[in-house]
Structure formats: C-alpha cells, structure tokens
Amino acid sequence: MARTKGYPEALEKKLADTRLYEDERHPEFTKTVEKISMTIPHMCYQCGTCTASCPSAPRSSYRIRKFVRRALLGLEDEALTDPDLWLCTTCYSCTDRCPRDIAPTDVIMAMRNLAFKRDIIPVNFLKTVQAIYTSGHGVPNNDVNRAARKKLGLPADPPTTHRFPQYIKGIQYILDYFELKKNADRIVKEREG
Ligand code: SF4
Ligand code: SF4
C-alpha cells in the first residue's frame, strides 16, 4: 500500500524528490508556525537530538528534525501533506532535550492546526473527535477495561465523564464553539460517504 493513501496523488513523487525549489518556500509559513507554536524553529541547527529522543522515530519514517527544518525553510505544502505529521505522540521528549530551547512538539501541533484548516487530516483523528464529543474520551472505557479495573480493586469507571456524564455537555460546548465536531463529521462523510 502506498504510504500516502488518502492524500494528494502527487505527494509520493514529491516526497521522493529531495531537491529544494525556491518557489516552494513560503516565508509567511515560517512566521505563522512560529506565531501559533510560540517557539523558534528558525534557531534550529539540525543537531538531531529531537529525532534521537523521539519514540516514534525507530518505529516509523517520522523524523521530527525534518519538520523543524521545513518550518524554518517555509516548506508549507511539503510539511502539511506529509502523513508523518500525524505520528507525533506529543510526549514532549524532544522539547525537554532540545539544546536550542525550541519546542518541536509545538511546531508539530501548529502544523497540524494549519493542515486541519485545509482538511488535511487522517480519518482516525476525526473519529477521535467524534468519540470525545459523545463520551468525553478519545478512547472510551469498555467491558474489558472495566473487568481489568475491578480486578485491580478500582471502580469500573474512572472519575471522568464516564462517572459524571453531566459534564459531557461542557465538552460538547467547546467542540461546537471551535466547529471541530461539525468539520470532523463533514470530512468523514466526504471521505467515507
Ligand atoms: S534538538 Fe532542537 S536544535 Fe536539534 S535538531 Fe531538534 S529542534 Fe533542531
Ligand atoms: S513530542 Fe512528538 S516529536 Fe517530540 S519526541 Fe515525542 S513523539 Fe517525537
């Protein structure tokens, strides 16, 4: 299966082409990412400490250092259309260790926000939004977990919206306010019918 399944067809070819084209650089992208992330990718000297700290790197083609470089060079399309953008677990190890005090995690978060604005987002992320809207959890509790919790002497449900469903309304208010659920439903429908 092509690793870019569900993304623009030209992406596979583009990712294979490592040359840098001046006309693909958008300096305003660098500024926008810096503004949203409130961090400083232009200070990156490509030491690689972030990638070496990243738990996703040994298991995938994801390289956080590459995304910081794309932010610095203003390579908007290359950054936002790369499916690896969604492989960060937001563990913040890279941010803890960057010798330049850059927060690569927040660079990724800023890029994800910008990608979502262009409807570039994997369906499983949208389904997480839908699950949060319904239950208050990205991964709702289930019978297997309930049984495991009971075995450990814990209440079957944690003290979250599972035990206090009256608070789901507040979560729905936030997701509605930012039109997250509405957009998630729309994109899922467009992709899956
Ligand atoms: S650790 Fe910091 S300086 Fe080093 S490559 Fe990553 S972002 Fe750049
Ligand atoms: S925050 Fe994301 S990019 Fe940074 S180390 Fe963790 S998984 Fe990797």
Describe this structure in words.
- The chain is an all-alpha fold and 193 residues long.
- The chain has two domains: 11-117, Orthogonal Bundle (Fumarate Reductase Iron-sulfur Protein, Chain B, domain 2), CATH 1.10.1060; 123-192, no CATH class.
- Helices cover 52% and strands 0% of the residues.
- It is built from eleven helices and no strands.
- The chain has helices at residues 11-16, 27-37, 49-53, 64-73, 76-80, 93-97, 104-117, 123-135, 143-151, 168-177, 180-192.
- The longest helix has 14 residues, at 104-117.
- The relative contact order is 0.11.
- The model has no long low-confidence stretch (mean pLDDT 92).
- One iron/sulfur cluster is lined by residues 53-56, 64, 88-94, 104-105, 108.
Kindly summarize this structure in a few lines.
By secondary structure, the protein is an all-alpha fold.
Explain the layout of strands and helices:
Layout: H1 11-16, H2 27-37, H3 49-53, H4 64-73, H5 76-80, H6 93-97, H7 104-117, H8 123-135, H9 143-151, H10 168-177, H11 180-192
The chain binds iron/sulfur cluster (2 copies).
Q: Rough shape?
A: globular
**Helicity level, as a percent range?**
40-55%
CATH fold description of the largest domain: Fumarate Reductase Iron-sulfur Protein, Chain B, domain 2
- The overall strand count is 0
What proportion of the residues form beta strands (DSSP E)? under 5%
Bound ions, cofactors and other small molecules, one mention each: iron/sulfur cluster
Described by strand count, sense and barrel closure, the largest sheet is: none
Which structural class should the secondary elements be placed in? mainly alpha
CATH arch. level architecture of the largest domain = Orthogonal Bundle
Mean pLDDT: 92
The value of Rg in angstroms is: 19 Å
Distance between the termini: 22 Å
CATH class of the largest domain: Mainly Alpha
- Count up the helices: 11
Number of domains: 2
Q: Helices and strands, in N-to-C order?
A: HHHHHHHHHHH
